[in-house]
Amino acid sequence: MAEIMTSFVSKTHNFQPEFEAAPIYSNASPNEALGDHHRSDAYLACDDEIPTIDYSLLLSHDSEQRSIALELLGHACEEYGFFYLVNHTIQDDALKNVFKGVSNYFDPTTIDERRIYSKKGSSDKIRWGLTANDGENREYLKVIAHPQDEAASSKPTISLSKIVEEYNKEMRKIVAGLAKAVSTNLGFDENYIENAFNMNSGFDVMAMNLYPPNTKAKGAVGLPNHTDPGFVVTLMQDVNGGLQILTHKGKWINVYIPHHAILIQLGDHLEILTNGKYKSHVHRVIVNNNKVQRISIVTLHGPSLDKFIVPATEFVDDENPQNYIGMTYKESLEANGGIEIDVQSSLDQIKLV
Ligand SMILES: O=C(O)CCC(=O)C(=O)O
Ligand SMILES: [Fe+2]
User: Fold this and answer.
1) 315: which strand partners?
2) This protein's superkingdom (predicted)?
3) CB of 283 shorter than 6 A to ligand 1
Protein backbone atom coordinates (compact mmCIF):
# COMPACT_ATOMS: atom_id res chain seq x y z
CA MET A 1 0.00 0.00 0.00
CA ALA A 2 2.77 2.41 0.96
CA GLU A 3 4.42 1.70 -2.35
CA ILE A 4 1.22 2.35 -4.26
CA MET A 5 0.64 5.57 -2.39
CA THR A 6 4.17 6.80 -2.91
CA SER A 7 4.04 6.21 -6.61
CA PHE A 8 0.74 8.05 -6.89
CA VAL A 9 1.95 10.86 -4.71
CA SER A 10 5.10 11.45 -6.68
CA LYS A 11 2.98 11.68 -9.80
CA THR A 12 0.32 13.89 -8.26
CA HIS A 13 3.02 16.31 -7.14
CA ASN A 14 3.74 17.31 -10.67
CA PHE A 15 0.52 16.47 -12.45
CA GLN A 16 -0.66 20.06 -12.67
CA PRO A 17 1.67 21.13 -15.50
CA GLU A 18 1.29 17.80 -17.29
CA PHE A 19 -2.40 17.81 -18.07
CA GLU A 20 -5.09 20.21 -18.91
CA ALA A 21 -6.57 21.34 -15.59
CA ALA A 22 -10.28 20.79 -15.26
CA PRO A 23 -12.31 23.97 -15.08
CA ILE A 24 -13.69 24.38 -11.59
CA TYR A 25 -17.42 23.84 -11.83
CA SER A 26 -17.71 25.18 -15.34
CA ASN A 27 -20.73 24.78 -17.57
CA ALA A 28 -20.43 21.03 -17.64
CA SER A 29 -21.47 19.48 -20.93
CA PRO A 30 -21.42 15.87 -22.10
CA ASN A 31 -17.94 14.39 -22.45
CA GLU A 32 -16.27 17.40 -20.92
CA ALA A 33 -13.58 15.40 -19.17
CA LEU A 34 -13.19 12.95 -22.00
CA GLY A 35 -10.12 12.84 -24.15
CA ASP A 36 -10.37 12.61 -27.90
CA HIS A 37 -8.12 9.56 -28.09
CA HIS A 38 -9.37 6.09 -28.83
CA ARG A 39 -12.12 4.97 -26.40
CA SER A 40 -11.69 1.63 -24.74
CA ASP A 41 -14.44 -0.92 -25.26
CA ALA A 42 -14.27 -2.16 -21.69
CA TYR A 43 -16.77 -0.50 -19.35
CA LEU A 44 -18.85 0.76 -22.25
CA ALA A 45 -22.14 2.31 -21.24
CA CYS A 46 -24.93 3.86 -23.28
CA ASP A 47 -26.33 7.36 -23.24
CA ASP A 48 -29.94 6.58 -22.30
CA GLU A 49 -31.92 9.40 -20.83
CA ILE A 50 -32.05 9.93 -17.07
CA PRO A 51 -35.24 11.47 -15.60
CA THR A 52 -35.16 15.15 -14.62
CA ILE A 53 -37.22 16.38 -11.69
CA ASP A 54 -38.00 20.05 -11.10
CA TYR A 55 -37.57 20.70 -7.38
CA SER A 56 -39.54 23.97 -7.44
CA LEU A 57 -42.57 22.21 -8.89
CA LEU A 58 -42.51 19.54 -6.17
CA LEU A 59 -43.21 22.36 -3.71
CA SER A 60 -45.51 24.37 -5.99
CA HIS A 61 -48.71 25.87 -4.58
CA ASP A 62 -50.36 25.10 -7.91
CA SER A 63 -51.80 21.68 -7.05
CA GLU A 64 -51.97 20.51 -10.66
CA GLN A 65 -48.31 21.34 -11.34
CA ARG A 66 -47.35 19.76 -8.06
CA SER A 67 -49.20 16.53 -8.73
CA ILE A 68 -47.59 16.21 -12.20
CA ALA A 69 -44.14 16.75 -10.65
CA LEU A 70 -44.90 14.19 -7.92
CA GLU A 71 -45.99 11.66 -10.51
CA LEU A 72 -42.72 12.10 -12.41
CA LEU A 73 -40.81 11.73 -9.16
CA GLY A 74 -42.69 8.52 -8.32
CA HIS A 75 -41.86 7.11 -11.74
CA ALA A 76 -38.17 8.07 -11.36
CA CYS A 77 -37.96 6.49 -7.89
CA GLU A 78 -39.66 3.25 -8.85
CA GLU A 79 -38.33 2.65 -12.36
CA TYR A 80 -34.85 4.20 -12.04
CA GLY A 81 -33.79 4.94 -8.46
CA PHE A 82 -31.88 8.05 -9.60
CA PHE A 83 -32.64 11.36 -11.30
CA TYR A 84 -31.34 14.86 -11.99
CA LEU A 85 -32.81 17.52 -9.72
CA VAL A 86 -33.10 20.96 -11.32
CA ASN A 87 -34.42 24.33 -10.09
CA HIS A 88 -33.22 23.64 -6.58
CA THR A 89 -32.29 26.25 -4.00
CA ILE A 90 -28.47 26.29 -4.01
CA GLN A 91 -27.00 29.31 -5.80
CA ASP A 92 -24.48 28.89 -8.60
CA ASP A 93 -21.84 31.08 -6.91
CA ALA A 94 -22.10 29.06 -3.73
CA LEU A 95 -21.39 25.89 -5.70
CA LYS A 96 -18.43 27.44 -7.51
CA ASN A 97 -16.94 28.34 -4.13
CA VAL A 98 -17.45 24.85 -2.78
CA PHE A 99 -15.61 23.28 -5.72
CA LYS A 100 -12.84 25.84 -5.47
CA GLY A 101 -12.43 25.09 -1.76
CA VAL A 102 -12.40 21.33 -2.25
CA SER A 103 -9.96 21.63 -5.16
CA ASN A 104 -7.64 23.75 -3.00
CA TYR A 105 -7.88 21.20 -0.22
CA PHE A 106 -6.60 18.51 -2.57
CA ASP A 107 -3.50 20.56 -3.45
CA PRO A 108 -0.86 17.90 -4.27
CA THR A 109 1.79 19.80 -2.32
CA THR A 110 -0.12 19.49 0.98
CA ILE A 111 -0.82 15.78 0.77
CA ASP A 112 1.08 15.01 3.99
CA GLU A 113 -1.41 17.14 5.94
CA ARG A 114 -4.24 14.94 4.66
CA ARG A 115 -2.41 11.69 5.30
CA ILE A 116 -3.04 12.03 9.06
CA TYR A 117 -6.66 11.04 8.38
CA SER A 118 -5.70 7.61 7.03
CA LYS A 119 -7.35 4.69 8.80
CA LYS A 120 -6.24 4.31 12.40
CA GLY A 121 -8.98 2.58 14.33
CA SER A 122 -12.63 1.79 14.85
CA SER A 123 -13.42 5.16 16.40
CA ASP A 124 -12.10 7.28 13.49
CA LYS A 125 -14.38 10.22 12.76
CA ILE A 126 -12.75 11.34 9.55
CA ARG A 127 -11.30 9.30 6.73
CA TRP A 128 -8.77 10.08 3.99
CA GLY A 129 -7.58 7.62 1.40
CA LEU A 130 -5.57 7.47 -1.79
CA THR A 131 -5.66 4.45 -4.03
CA ALA A 132 -4.03 3.86 -7.38
CA ASN A 133 -4.42 0.30 -8.58
CA ASP A 134 -6.41 -1.68 -11.11
CA GLY A 135 -9.48 -1.70 -8.82
CA GLU A 136 -9.63 1.96 -7.77
CA ASN A 137 -7.99 5.29 -8.65
CA ARG A 138 -9.09 8.03 -6.33
CA GLU A 139 -8.09 10.38 -3.54
CA TYR A 140 -10.94 11.04 -1.11
CA LEU A 141 -11.87 12.60 2.18
CA LYS A 142 -14.97 11.57 4.12
CA VAL A 143 -16.27 13.72 6.96
CA ILE A 144 -19.38 13.63 9.12
CA ALA A 145 -21.49 16.64 8.18
CA HIS A 146 -24.47 16.02 10.53
CA PRO A 147 -25.56 15.81 13.34
CA GLN A 148 -23.56 18.66 14.85
CA ASP A 149 -22.16 16.71 17.82
CA GLU A 150 -20.76 14.05 15.46
CA ALA A 151 -19.60 16.66 12.94
CA ALA A 152 -17.71 18.50 15.68
CA SER A 153 -15.22 15.62 15.94
CA SER A 154 -14.90 15.26 12.16
CA LYS A 155 -13.26 18.51 11.09
CA PRO A 156 -10.39 18.81 8.60
CA THR A 157 -8.98 22.33 7.96
CA ILE A 158 -10.96 25.35 9.17
CA SER A 159 -11.77 26.52 5.66
CA LEU A 160 -12.96 23.10 4.48
CA SER A 161 -15.01 22.60 7.67
CA LYS A 162 -16.81 25.87 6.94
CA ILE A 163 -17.50 24.78 3.38
CA VAL A 164 -18.84 21.41 4.55
CA GLU A 165 -21.09 23.06 7.13
CA GLU A 166 -22.59 25.60 4.71
CA TYR A 167 -22.99 23.11 1.86
CA ASN A 168 -24.64 20.53 4.08
CA LYS A 169 -27.01 23.08 5.57
CA GLU A 170 -28.25 24.00 2.10
CA MET A 171 -28.36 20.40 0.88
CA ARG A 172 -30.32 19.25 3.95
CA LYS A 173 -33.10 21.71 3.09
CA ILE A 174 -33.38 20.11 -0.34
CA VAL A 175 -33.28 16.60 1.10
CA ALA A 176 -36.02 17.53 3.60
CA GLY A 177 -38.19 18.72 0.69
CA LEU A 178 -37.51 15.47 -1.15
CA ALA A 179 -38.41 13.47 1.97
CA LYS A 180 -41.80 15.18 2.04
CA ALA A 181 -42.41 14.55 -1.67
CA VAL A 182 -41.35 10.89 -1.42
CA SER A 183 -43.57 10.39 1.66
CA THR A 184 -46.56 11.81 -0.22
CA ASN A 185 -45.85 9.59 -3.21
CA LEU A 186 -45.74 6.54 -0.98
CA GLY A 187 -49.23 7.39 0.30
CA PHE A 188 -48.24 8.74 3.72
CA ASP A 189 -48.39 12.12 5.37
CA GLU A 190 -45.49 14.33 4.37
CA ASN A 191 -43.51 13.78 7.58
CA TYR A 192 -43.43 10.01 7.20
CA ILE A 193 -39.81 9.66 5.98
CA GLU A 194 -38.62 12.30 8.39
CA ASN A 195 -40.03 10.24 11.28
CA ALA A 196 -39.17 6.79 9.93
CA PHE A 197 -35.50 7.81 9.60
CA ASN A 198 -35.40 10.42 12.38
CA MET A 199 -33.82 12.73 9.80
CA ASN A 200 -33.59 15.59 12.29
CA SER A 201 -30.67 13.71 13.82
CA GLY A 202 -29.71 12.08 10.52
CA PHE A 203 -26.14 10.83 10.05
CA ASP A 204 -24.77 12.60 6.95
CA VAL A 205 -21.36 11.80 5.54
CA MET A 206 -19.83 14.00 2.87
CA ALA A 207 -17.33 12.31 0.55
CA MET A 208 -15.08 14.53 -1.53
CA ASN A 209 -13.53 12.52 -4.36
CA LEU A 210 -10.73 13.47 -6.69
CA TYR A 211 -10.12 11.23 -9.71
CA PRO A 212 -6.88 11.58 -11.65
CA PRO A 213 -6.91 11.87 -15.45
CA ASN A 214 -6.41 8.64 -17.37
CA THR A 215 -2.72 9.41 -17.90
CA LYS A 216 -2.14 9.20 -14.16
CA ALA A 217 -4.46 6.28 -13.35
CA LYS A 218 -3.21 2.75 -12.76
CA GLY A 219 -6.24 1.23 -14.45
CA ALA A 220 -9.62 2.09 -15.91
CA VAL A 221 -11.60 2.10 -12.67
CA GLY A 222 -12.00 5.20 -10.52
CA LEU A 223 -14.38 3.58 -8.06
CA PRO A 224 -15.67 -0.02 -8.30
CA ASN A 225 -19.31 -1.19 -8.35
CA HIS A 226 -21.27 -0.40 -5.20
CA THR A 227 -24.54 0.89 -3.79
CA ASP A 228 -24.71 3.45 -0.99
CA PRO A 229 -26.50 3.25 2.37
CA GLY A 230 -28.96 5.86 3.64
CA PHE A 231 -32.08 7.67 2.45
CA VAL A 232 -30.66 9.49 -0.59
CA VAL A 233 -27.25 10.42 -1.94
CA THR A 234 -26.71 13.88 -3.43
CA LEU A 235 -23.92 14.19 -5.99
CA MET A 236 -22.36 17.18 -7.71
CA GLN A 237 -19.25 17.27 -9.90
CA ASP A 238 -16.99 19.87 -11.49
CA VAL A 239 -16.85 18.17 -14.92
CA ASN A 240 -18.68 15.32 -16.56
CA GLY A 241 -16.89 12.08 -17.18
CA GLY A 242 -16.92 8.58 -15.82
CA LEU A 243 -19.89 8.02 -13.53
CA GLN A 244 -21.95 5.06 -14.76
CA ILE A 245 -25.13 3.59 -13.30
CA LEU A 246 -26.49 0.08 -13.71
CA THR A 247 -30.22 0.37 -14.30
CA HIS A 248 -32.70 -2.01 -12.68
CA LYS A 249 -33.02 -3.57 -16.14
CA GLY A 250 -29.30 -4.42 -16.17
CA LYS A 251 -27.99 -1.75 -18.56
CA TRP A 252 -24.99 0.48 -17.79
CA ILE A 253 -25.69 4.12 -18.57
CA ASN A 254 -23.44 7.19 -18.55
CA VAL A 255 -24.29 10.04 -16.22
CA TYR A 256 -24.00 13.54 -17.73
CA ILE A 257 -25.21 15.89 -15.04
CA PRO A 258 -26.66 19.08 -16.55
CA HIS A 259 -25.09 22.31 -15.36
CA HIS A 260 -26.27 23.23 -11.86
CA ALA A 261 -28.32 20.03 -11.47
CA ILE A 262 -27.85 17.60 -8.58
CA LEU A 263 -27.79 13.87 -9.19
CA ILE A 264 -30.04 12.19 -6.62
CA GLN A 265 -29.51 8.48 -6.00
CA LEU A 266 -31.79 6.46 -3.74
CA GLY A 267 -29.99 4.77 -0.85
CA ASP A 268 -30.18 1.24 0.53
CA HIS A 269 -32.30 2.26 3.52
CA LEU A 270 -35.12 3.64 1.39
CA GLU A 271 -35.06 0.25 -0.34
CA ILE A 272 -35.28 -1.51 3.05
CA LEU A 273 -38.04 0.76 4.39
CA THR A 274 -40.16 0.27 1.26
CA ASN A 275 -39.42 -3.47 1.16
CA GLY A 276 -37.85 -3.08 -2.29
CA LYS A 277 -40.44 -0.79 -3.92
CA TYR A 278 -37.84 1.98 -4.30
CA LYS A 279 -34.42 0.40 -4.85
CA SER A 280 -30.85 1.65 -4.63
CA HIS A 281 -28.70 0.77 -7.66
CA VAL A 282 -25.15 -0.23 -8.45
CA HIS A 283 -22.87 2.49 -9.83
CA ARG A 284 -19.15 2.97 -10.54
CA VAL A 285 -16.65 5.52 -11.83
CA ILE A 286 -14.53 4.83 -14.90
CA VAL A 287 -11.54 7.12 -15.53
CA ASN A 288 -9.92 5.59 -18.59
CA ASN A 289 -11.21 8.23 -21.01
CA ASN A 290 -10.79 11.24 -18.77
CA LYS A 291 -8.33 13.81 -20.05
CA VAL A 292 -8.55 15.98 -16.94
CA GLN A 293 -9.02 15.31 -13.25
CA ARG A 294 -12.55 15.26 -11.89
CA ILE A 295 -13.92 16.19 -8.46
CA SER A 296 -17.22 14.92 -7.12
CA ILE A 297 -18.92 15.94 -3.88
CA VAL A 298 -21.17 13.20 -2.63
CA THR A 299 -23.30 13.31 0.52
CA LEU A 300 -24.92 10.22 1.97
CA HIS A 301 -27.95 11.47 3.91
CA GLY A 302 -28.78 8.76 6.40
CA PRO A 303 -31.17 7.99 9.24
CA SER A 304 -30.00 8.71 12.78
CA LEU A 305 -27.46 6.11 13.88
CA ASP A 306 -29.75 4.60 16.54
CA LYS A 307 -32.83 4.38 14.32
CA PHE A 308 -34.02 0.80 13.74
CA ILE A 309 -34.82 0.39 10.04
CA VAL A 310 -37.08 -2.45 8.91
CA PRO A 311 -39.59 -2.75 6.02
CA ALA A 312 -42.72 -0.77 6.94
CA THR A 313 -45.78 -2.97 7.48
CA GLU A 314 -47.57 -1.10 4.66
CA PHE A 315 -45.18 -2.74 2.15
CA VAL A 316 -45.43 -6.26 3.51
CA ASP A 317 -48.31 -8.67 2.81
CA ASP A 318 -48.91 -12.20 1.51
CA GLU A 319 -47.84 -11.24 -2.00
CA ASN A 320 -44.89 -9.15 -0.80
CA PRO A 321 -43.14 -10.99 2.00
CA GLN A 322 -40.59 -9.13 4.09
CA ASN A 323 -37.37 -9.05 2.04
CA TYR A 324 -35.00 -7.43 4.53
CA ILE A 325 -34.13 -7.90 8.19
CA GLY A 326 -34.24 -4.97 10.59
CA MET A 327 -31.26 -3.35 12.30
CA THR A 328 -30.18 0.08 13.46
CA TYR A 329 -28.43 2.33 10.94
CA LYS A 330 -25.26 2.07 13.01
CA GLU A 331 -25.42 -1.74 12.99
CA SER A 332 -25.93 -1.76 9.23
CA LEU A 333 -22.88 0.49 8.70
CA GLU A 334 -20.83 -1.97 10.73
CA ALA A 335 -22.36 -5.20 9.36
CA ASN A 336 -19.71 -5.68 6.69
CA GLY A 337 -16.84 -5.04 9.07
CA GLY A 338 -16.67 -1.32 8.26
CA ILE A 339 -17.06 1.58 10.66
CA GLU A 340 -19.55 4.47 10.57
CA ILE A 341 -17.35 6.94 8.68
CA ASP A 342 -16.71 4.42 5.88
CA VAL A 343 -20.48 4.43 5.06
CA GLN A 344 -20.19 1.09 3.26
CA SER A 345 -23.27 -0.71 1.99
CA SER A 346 -24.24 -3.92 3.78
CA LEU A 347 -27.36 -4.65 1.77
CA ASP A 348 -26.06 -8.17 1.12
CA GLN A 349 -26.25 -8.85 4.90
CA ILE A 350 -29.71 -7.32 5.22
CA LYS A 351 -31.47 -8.86 2.21
CA LEU A 352 -33.36 -12.03 2.96
CA VAL A 353 -33.51 -13.30 -0.62
O1 LIG B 1 -17.59 10.23 -7.91
C2 LIG B 1 -18.63 9.77 -8.31
O3 LIG B 1 -19.18 10.15 -9.34
C4 LIG B 1 -19.31 8.68 -7.54
C5 LIG B 1 -18.83 8.58 -6.13
C6 LIG B 1 -19.60 7.58 -5.36
O7 LIG B 1 -20.33 6.78 -5.88
C8 LIG B 1 -19.47 7.57 -3.90
O9 LIG B 1 -18.66 8.34 -3.34
O10 LIG B 1 -20.20 6.78 -3.25
FE1 LIG C 1 -21.64 5.86 -4.51
Assistant:
1) none
2) Eukaryota
3) yes
